[in-house]
Design a protein that fits this description.
heterodimer, A: alpha+beta, Alpha-Beta Plaits, 2 helices, B: alpha+beta, two-stranded antiparallel sheet
Amino acid sequence: MTVPTAAEAPSLAERIAAVVTSHPSVARLHGGIFGDVATYLPGRRLTGVRVGEGDEPVELGVVLLLDRPIPEVVRDLRTAVSGMCGGAAVDIIVGDVALPGEPGPTDR
Amino acid sequence: MSETTPTPTVKTPSSTVSSPARLADDTSQGRTTIAASVVQKIAGIAAREISGVYSMGGGVSRAFGAIRERIPGGGTGGANIAGVQVEVGEKQAAVDLDIVVEYGASIVELARAVRRNVITAVERMTGLEVIEVNIAVNDIHLPDADNDEEIPTVQAARVE
C-alpha cells in the first residue's frame, strides 16, 4: 500500500493514537524508554506514536492495564495499527503497566 | 599452528536492570519491547499476594518508601517495586526479591509459594521465561511491633 506522505502523517498519527487508546487494555500512551516516541504536530506534541518515513517501522509506546496478558494485547494493537498503515512493521514498547483499579497516573 | 583456540561464542551482552526486553517471536511484523519496570511491578504484586509476606524491601528502601509515600506527588507507584530487582533479556527474566515475613509463617513454604506465584504471573503476563527467582528474607515482622518505628536490623543486602 502507500506510504503515508509527510502531509498526511500527522493526522495518521492522531488516528492511530485514537485507535490505540480505545483498546480496553490500554491505560494511556507512553513516550518510550527515553521519551522519544512522539509526533510533532502544529502546536503540540503527541506522545506515544511515531510514524516513520519510507519503510521505517511505526513506533508505539503504551501503558497497559494488567488485566490481560501483554503479548495478547500487543498482538491486537499490532494488527490494528499495521492495518491502518498499509501493513507496515509496528514496534511496540510497553513502557509501564497500571493496575485495573487505577487507570490514571494521578492515583490517590 | 600449534594451538587451536576454540572459536569463542560471543554472547550478546545481557541486558542490565534498566534495559528493555524484546520478545523474540516477532519478526518482520515489528518488535515488542517490555520495560524492566513492567516486570518489576508484576513480580512485586505477585509476591505481595501471598499471605505471610508483610512487606518488601531492605531496610534502606523501606525507610525511603515510608518517606516517599508521605510526600504529595511522590507517588505510590514505587510501593509496588520496592524490594524487587529484575534483569531482563531477550526472552528470559531473572527476579531478585527482598521480603519481610510475618512471624509465624514457615519461611521455606512461604518462599516456595512466592516463587511459584511470581513465576506464574510474570510468564503469563509478559511471555518472558523466568529463569530464577532469588528470595532474600530480610526481616521478620512481629505482630506487636506495628506502631513503633521499625529499626532496620538488616541493611540492604546488595549494592548494585
